[in-house]
Amino acid sequence: xxxxGVKITGVGHYAPEKVITxxxxxxxxxxxxxxITTRTGMKRRHVAGIDEATSDLALVAxxxxxxxAGVDPHDxxxxxVATVTPDFxxxxxxxxxxxxxxxxxxxxxxxxxxxxxxxxxxTVAASLVRSGVYKRILxxxxxxxxxxxxxxxxxxAILFGDGAGAVVLEASAQDSFLSSELGxxxxxxxxxxxxxxxxxxxxxxxxxxxxxxxxxxxxREVFKFAVTKMIDATERALEKARLTHADLDLLIPHQAxxxxxxxxxxxxxxxSDKVLVNIHEYGNTSAASIPIALSxxxxxxxxxxxxxxVFVGFGGGLxxxxxxxxxxx
Length: 329
Ligand code: ACO
Known about the structure:
It is built from eleven helices and 13 strands. The strands form four sheets. A five-stranded mixed β-sheet has the order 1-7-6-4-5, sandwiched between helices. Strands 8-13-12-11 form a four-stranded mixed β-sheet, sandwiched between helices. It has a two-stranded antiparallel ribbon with strand order 2-3. It has helices spanning 22-28, 33-40, 54-69, 93-100, 117-130, 154-157, 205-209, 219-240, 258-267, 279-282, 289-299; strands spanning 5-14, 19-21, 44-46, 78-82, 107-111, 136-144, 162-172, 177-184, 192-194, 215-217, 250-253, 308-315, 319-326. Helix 8 packs parallel to helix 9. It is α/β, with parallel strands linked by helices. It is 33% helix and 24% strand. Strand 12 and strand 13 (319-326) form a beta hairpin. The chain has two domains: 5-175, Peroxisomal Thiolase, Chain A, domain 1; 178-326, 3-Layer(aba) Sandwich (Peroxisomal Thiolase, Chain A, domain 1), CATH 3.40.47. The structure holds acetyl coenzyme *A (ACO). Acetyl coenzyme *A is lined by residues 31, 35, 39-40, 114-115, 154-155, 158, 192, 217, 219-220, 222-223, 226, 256-257, 260, 284, 286, 315-316.
């Protein structure tokens, strides 16, 4: 195995056509556009249809990224999907996506670490390429979170949307991967989880009636943790890359709450034009939010050759992570 550098050679994203606006939510919940906008920055979220599963969204984003990279699916060595809303508990959604792309007999697996999924996935995928295990990897963050949200719970129903973002990573003489900082704290899973349906609590009728098949979140607790960890992970990732805030051209944070992003950006002394925000359009799409934002930024020309980017995320686990990346065109 020969070590090499790694770079992203293609990006793509997809969000379902159906949109739910704050005005739509006002009609079905005790909430308001004003509350949602000021507390979260969200305006719209895209929602998968009843027949649309996570692999369907992933597939469209994957095709766009492969097309952007000019890479045939058969030339991908490994398919990774970061998701907490797989098509099935098993098999892995990545196997389904690889098969739908016509790439048989390739390595494929899912990463399940909630909203931190893309950051963990990028670290794993980049490491596999840099160590020479694989030459080309397709990494996708894809979610259909609206399928596991209780539509009657105003505390969570307003927050989540569906979508997918994909990147093609390839071995390269230049090395884009500068550092990674990952972390977790599993001591309080009850702060943010789907309680029933796993091996701890079966989804029996009592738990079903209690709504334990849906996302439960202690919003205020998660908020405090999120701001601290976004800052901490970004600083540690920059330090590992021997860089400072001043070297940073773009911060691409997980899109969970505009106030979380603003608080972290303020502490990190990042002006708003260097912080990517698209939460108004998508809401929180968990593992898909960062690759969707990256794909939009690259396609709109906002990302330039040589830019130093920090991708930073946090979520269920609790978990967090940041990756420092030097963009190579
Ligand atoms: N509309 C109107 N009022 C509401 C709504 C709503 N949709 N939701 C809650 N409220 C009310 C509450 O009942 C409460 O009322 P009270 O004061 O009478 O008790 C009041 O608004 C304030 O509630 P808080 O929960 O304190 O509101 P907060 O300002 O914390 O905002 C939010 C809530 C948006 C959820 C915020 O806490 C947050 O963003 N937390 C972090 C979410 C996150 O980042 N999740 C991470 C990833 S998800 C994953 O990993 C899958």
